[in-house]
Structure formats: C-alpha cells, structure tokens
Amino acid sequence: METDLVSIPKQTDDISGLSTLHVSYIIQNLIPLSVVDRQKLSLFDKIFEEEQDDTSMSSDDVTLVAVGSSAEGLNMPNLTETTEQGLKPLELSDIDILLVMNQYKITFCQAEKPTIRFCDPRELFPWEFYAVAETNDIHPGYVRLNRSNTSDFSEYQDREMLLLNFRMRHMERKEFVDVVEVNGPALTIPVHASDRKISGRRLPLDKVLAMPCKEWPPTANPCFKRFRDKGWLSEDLIQEIKDGGCHIVPVHHRAVDDKKSKFEWRISFATTERLIARTALTDVQKQAYVAIKALYHEKIRKLEILSSYHMKTTFLYTCERTYTSCWRENVFLCILFFLDLLKEFVVKRNIPNFFIPENNLVDYITEEQFILLEETLLEIRFNPLNPLLSFFDDKYFDELGVKLDHRSIYFAQVISDMEVGLHHFCNEISFELFKSCSIEIMVKYIRCNNYKAAVETAQILHLFLRKYEKSNSEVESLAQIILSTVKVIEDFQALNFCRYITERFDGDESFDCCQSHLTNLERKAHEKMGQTCSACII
Q1: pTM
Q2: How much is the pLDDT for 54?
Q3: DSSP string of 413-480?
Q4: What is the pLDDT of residues 215-233, one digit of tens each?
C-alpha cells in the first residue's frame, strides 16, 4: 500500500529528534528561493535558443531539445568551493540535449504497419525512417523498432549501427576531436570544449540521439488514472502530457542478453518530466530538491549505485503523495518524507518508473549494493541536518557571492536550541532566536553589497513569523525587520542600503519608517561632511 503524507503539523521528527520547524528555517536560509527562481528558466531558454547552431547535424532534419535538470529548473545552482589553493568552481550540473531526428516516424499502432514505407536497413541515416515500436516480450519501458511493413517478416533497427554513425558525425568536427567522450548512448562534451552556459558558467554537454513519437505509449496509459486519483497534476496538464507523446532513445536495459541488446531501445519521457517540473513544481519544492541533491552529493553519489535520476523519480512520487501546502508549511517534513520513501523503495528493491511503474529502475543492482544503500540511507535519516550542513561548509552559491559560516556562527544558536531540547510547540518557541540569526545573515550580505539577498533573508523571517507565531502580539512587518537590521550596521553602509530599500519599495506606506530613517541618515552624513570641511578650513 502506498504511503501518503497527511497535512498534520509535526513539531519534532521521531527518528532524528530534530525540530522540523528549526530545520525548515535553516533550509530556507541555507538555500534562498532566489537560487531556484523560475525566471532563470526563461533566461536559460533564451540563451539556448540563441545557441541553436549545431553544425554537426542539419538543422532541417534535427531539432535540439534541452532536457534534464538544467532545463527543468532542478539543477544544482552554480557553486564555488573554497580550498587551500583558492576558489574552485564546481561542476555539479550539465546540460542534456536531445537531438530529435525529424525524418524518423515512430508509431505504437500495429494497424499502421501496412502504411509504413520500407527502408533499406543498410542505410544508417535514411532520408525518411518509419517503424513500429513493439513492446511485447521485452522489459517494461523498452521497445524494438520494426521497420518491416508486412507481417511476413520483421526487420529490427540495429541500435549500435545508428549510434556508430551518430558518433562519427560528431567526430568529424575538428573542435571535438580528442575531447568527446562516449558514455553509453550519450556523447559528452567536457566543460572546456562546451559552448553552452548557465548563469555565465560553461557546463559539460550530454547529447543523445532521439526519435520522435507523437503517440503516448500504451504501456504508460495506466499512469493517467493514478495522476487523477492523486490530484497533484491538473487535468489540463495531464492532457498536455498525453498529447505530447514521447521519444525513443538508443539505450538498452542493463540486464538484457547481449544478442538482444542491439535491437532494444528505451522509451524516454524526458520532455514530459521537463513539462511537469516547469508546470507543477513550486519554488519551495525546487528549494527542497536542492537540499535533497546536496544530501545526494554528500553521502550517496560516492557509492556509485544510485543516479540523480533515481532521486528525481522518487522526488516526483513524493510531490504526488503530498499536498502542495505541506511544502510551504514545513519543508523539512516533506524532505523527511522523501527520505522515508526512498528507503522504502530500496527495502522493496524497486524504484518504479514514474510513468511505467512496472519498469523497476534498480532491478540490476546487487544485494550487496542494496544493503550498503540501506545503511547509508539509515545514517542520513538519523541526522539529515549534519550532512546537509557539511556539504555547504566549504561552498557558497555564486549568486550570493559570499560564504556564510552557517554551522559555526549563523545557525549555531538554532542548532543549540534543538540539542538542548528547548523546542516546543510553535506558540512556545522564542522567535527572537530566529530574528537574531536572520539579522546577522542580513548584515553579512549588506556588508558584501548583496542587498537583494539581505531583503530575501528578511522576507524569509517575516513569512516564518506570520506562519508560526501564535501569540496575540502583532507580528513585525517586513519594514520593521529591515529597519532593525539597518540600526546595527555602520552609517555609510546603512545609508546605501536604505536608499536601495526606499527605491525598491517606493510607494509602499509600510516602508515610510525606512524613508524617515534614510532622511535622518542623510542629515547626519551632511552634518558630518560640513564638520569635516570646517576642520579643513581651520
């Protein structure tokens, strides 16, 4: 039976003993929403469109489609690591590109077989290509491509021959000679040879050949009933998913017999996953996923058992089984649910594909590997905060431009409060602790001239207070929180920051207090300048 997360407030996690309220506060400050801002996707799309000139294939025959985490907004934001040798940009994301062959026509409908135009199978890249995707007697989620237009015989497309020609075409480009790496069906172009960027940083490319299929796979039809029963995806989105079809990519199942492998292809839902990520996921869910990927990079990736795709699949199931409001109310509780679900999958030795659950994504893993995974996940589950903070101990987001000593300085009081057991129900928590922590973080950002991050930190605190403060006292306004911070920094820094605030919130009456403070600061600065000039004359 599936486990769903009900929307019931839970102050303390029974397994880790951590306060979900405290850790939610830490996560929201550790990974600001600005680093997962959906506006970055618009910028990504704009840059991708401007760089569509891929001369390795004819643009008339090939459509380049960006997929994967970078195109979904689920990529790890640009991070820099501080080392003894200096600053080191980290490569934790890449750009996945489907090279969709437009002249290929794939159908799942056997009735269309007589209308298929038969092509000589010796042609590696024929002018036109027609085939029926067969799903009988094959691993769920995979197909054979039958190019025959008659039931008298079958002519299956050789996957390896097509891949060979695909690789040869890329190797013809001088700039790719000696740098392109072959990773299964993908051609990987390393960062130093890449011509693609995200937020100004070059990223490695993975290019995968793909055949378009306008039909939704019949083997994936049952997922629509589950989508409707769960209620996460809207009816319009479900219809768009169904109308969008899928792609066929040259990947065989890991456990398939060698003799059959060259005729086995995988059904790809990459464009569907991109659609769901862009349409159904909220910024808070994406924020949580960055925290999950931090745990993955810190503890799981080095085991070389599970991939980031396993994480994303489990995350989609997590979102499907939780109310969207749960993520806003208690993001850490939802992350714990993800960890429990992942452990449940591992215990059952089955991570089901999100669209074809019969396709077990881990049916090739050995028992020894499963046991190691269980031990690692149990270790994380007992204290997920420690590896999360460890990941960020020597790293910072490029967008923030400053490294915060989260563990030793900014979150020390919050962590101490949990360790000594001072956390109770929401109406008994001293939010002055969170306010003090937020002001310290804001001061650090202001001193580094990152005013945007400082305001976002204030907004996090304000929203936090509004959600959880249960007393009768009026919650401080955003302007009052900002003004409290301004009063603890030097006059010249406060002056510049106040000017930024009054300009940004111009017309908002609640910020009149900041305008008054700015006027007072400017008067003091003018008087001080006058005194300096008088001293010089004397």
Answers
A1: 0.90
A2: 47
A3: HHHHHHHTT---SGGGS-HHHHHHHHHHHHHHHHHTT-HHHHHHHHHHHHHHHHHH--SSSPPPPHHH
A4: 999 999 999 999 999 999 9
SS (H, E, C) 489-504: CCHHHHHHHHHHHHHH
Tell me which of 188 and 265 has the higher pLDDT: 265
Residue type, 214: K
User: pLDDT tens, 262-307?
Assistant: 889 999 999 999 999 999 999 999 999 999 999 999 999 999 999 9
Query: Of all helices (H) and strands (E), which one includes residue 270?
Result: helix 270-279
Structural domains of the chain, ranges and CATH numbers in brackets: 1-30+282-384 (1.10.1410.40), 36-280 (3.30.460.90), 393-537 (no CATH)
Report helix, strand and coil shares of the chain as percent, to nearest 5.
Answer: 50, 15, 35
Closest residue by Cα to residue 21 from 385, 344, 341:
385
For residue 337, how many other CB atoms are within 10 A of its CB? 17
Task: Convert the pLDDT of each residue in 69-108 to its tens digit.
Answer: 989 999 888 888 888 888 888 877 778 889 898 888 898 9
Report the mean per-residue pLDDT for the chain: 83
The residue type found at 335 is I
| Strand partners of residue 198 | 201
Give the distance, in angstroms, between the CA of residue 516 and the centroid of all CA atoms in the same chain: 42
Q: Which residue has the tokens 């990504």?
A: 44
Asked if 3 contacts 341 with a C-beta cutoff of 8 angstroms, the reply is yes
pLDDT at 472 over 50: no
DSSP code per residue over 71-121 = HHT-SPPPEEEEETTEEEE-----EEEEEEETTEEEE--GGGGGG-----T
User: Angle CA(33)–CA(34)–CA(39) in degrees, nearest 5?
Assistant: 115
Find out whether 268 and 341 touch, Cβ atoms under 8 Å: no
Which residues, including other chains, have CB under 8 Å from residue 451's CB and lie 6 or more apart? Answer: 445, 497, 500, 501
